């Protein structure tokens, strides 16, 4: 008898570390800048995440939440995980997702130099006083050139590490099933890893094993703070403000990076489209890998799992267009194409609602 699992391997259950998932389909973290001005998640956000759970996704990873109330916030109306109000707001989101039968992980994100909206009034900071490439992102309410960040002192670094650890404790208190450290896409930890934004001469600069050290330090601090609790790390080569960057040492760099993060519950590799980078991550870290990018082609997605490039598939744009993607996959229905107008003029939940209203009226 043919089962749904043989029709597509992503429909089979999987255990991610200690987390039992009813399938291998995840919602990738996507910034929606729809929290209250102080970073508190809203009831509308709870419904947004609940929709993915009702649609059948086995795992939901939240948009990046800033971990402290000094330098970490990247965007106006970005949610935080730094205050009691944040915890209370996120608890409603977590309860909504759990009630709908899914698992939810909080992503912790320090924007560093690519901060374009900080409600607390602090300047941007980064590994070195190097202005970010490109310009601020209109989708998240920005315009014009980035500010040159202040180079972080040892005290700044210690404070950032402590912020990640405290935010992980807050995530656990809010009921999340785990946390993911955002070390990708050009944000603070990735700025330390990137050769052209990190010009330091201390233990955090220079060769790649030094540049990945801050991410490894954050991972260790979070582990110490939350104990036996799932802690993943997201990595990428490209960035939201630089889509062409690749690790200068190619596979040699990748091996050092992945091995340095072997204490993570899982690695989440973004922008790879299921290539051998994800397989290398599995081999070098010995950990499960979530692949994100280029997976809307469901035949390719099946190959990624069948050929053991990754263990879980994370969908971004395809999930936005198809919040019931797992149900569609199970029934054999075609996926709707992603429409960029969903996120215009800004990537808010309001913009998506207005897009849906136009579609219905049209």
Features:
disordered N terminus; 362 residues; TIM Barrel; eight-stranded parallel β-barrel; alpha/beta; two-stranded antiparallel ribbon
Tell me briefly what this model is:
The chain has helices at 4-7, 43-54, 84-99, 154-174, 188-193, 208-211, 213-226, 250-260, 276-285, 298-306, 317-321, 325-331, 349-361, and strands at 14-16, 19-21, 25-27, 59-65, 103-108, 125-126, 150-151, 179-182, 231-236, 266-270, 289-292, 312-315. The chain is an alpha/beta fold and 362 residues long.
Write the layout of secondary structure elements.
Blueprint: H1 4-7, E1 14-16, E2 19-21, E3 25-27, H2 43-54, E4 59-65, H3 84-99, E5 103-108, E6 125-126, E7 150-151, H4 154-174, E8 179-182, H5 188-193, H6 208-211, H7 213-226, E9 231-236, H8 250-260, E10 266-270, H9 276-285, E11 289-292, H10 298-306, E12 312-315, H11 317-321, H12 325-331, H13 349-361
Parallel strand pairs: 3-4, 3-12, 4-5, 5-8, 6-7, 8-9, 9-10, 10-11, 11-12
Antiparallel strand pairs: 1-2
């Amino acid at each position: 008898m043919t089962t749904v699992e043989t029709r597509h391997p992503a429909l089979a259950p999987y255990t991610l570390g200690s987390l039992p998932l009813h399938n291998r389909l995840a919602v990738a973290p996507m910034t929606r800048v729809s929290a209250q001005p102080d970073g508190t998640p809203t009831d509308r956000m709870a419904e947004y995440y609940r929709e993915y759970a009702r649609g059948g996704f086995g795992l939901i990873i939240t948009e990046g939440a800033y971990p402290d109330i000094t330098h970490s916030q990247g965007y106006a109306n970005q949610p935080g995980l730094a205050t009691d109000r944040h915890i209370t707001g996120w608890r409603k989101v977590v309860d909504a997702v759990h009630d709908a039968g899914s698992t939810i992980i909080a992503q912790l994100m320090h924007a560093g130099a690519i901060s374009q909206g900080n409600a607390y009034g602090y300047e941007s900071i980064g590994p070195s006083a190097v202005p970010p490439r490109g310009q601020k992102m209109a989708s998240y309410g920005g315009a014009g050139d980035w500010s040159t960040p202040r180079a972080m002192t040892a005290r700044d670094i210690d404070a950032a590490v402590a912020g990640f650890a405290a935010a992980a404790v807050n995530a656990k208190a809010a009921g999340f099933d785990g946390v993911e450290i955002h070390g990708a896409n050009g944000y603070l930890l990735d700025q330390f890893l990137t050769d052209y934004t990190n010009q330091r001469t201390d233990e955090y600069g220079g060769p790649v094993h030094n540049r990945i050290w801050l991410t490894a330090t954050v991972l260790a601090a979070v582990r110490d703070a939350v104990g036996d609790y799932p802690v993943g790390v997201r990595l990428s080569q490209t960035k939201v403000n630089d889509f062409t960057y690749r690790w200068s040492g190619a596979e040699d760099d990748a091996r050092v990076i992945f091995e340095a993060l072997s204490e993570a519950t899982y690695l989440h590799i973004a922008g790879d489209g299921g290539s051998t980078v994800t397989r290398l991550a599995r081999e070098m870290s010995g950990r499960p890998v979530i692949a994100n990018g280029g997976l809307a082609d469901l035949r390719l997605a099946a190959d990624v799992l069948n050929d053991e490039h990754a263990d879980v598939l994370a969908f971004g744009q395809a999930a936005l267009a198809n919040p019931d993607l797992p149900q569609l996959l199970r029934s054999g229905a075609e996926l709707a194409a992603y429409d960029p107008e969903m996120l215009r003029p800004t990537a808010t939940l309001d913009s998506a609602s207005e897009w849906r209203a136009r579609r219905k009226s049209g």
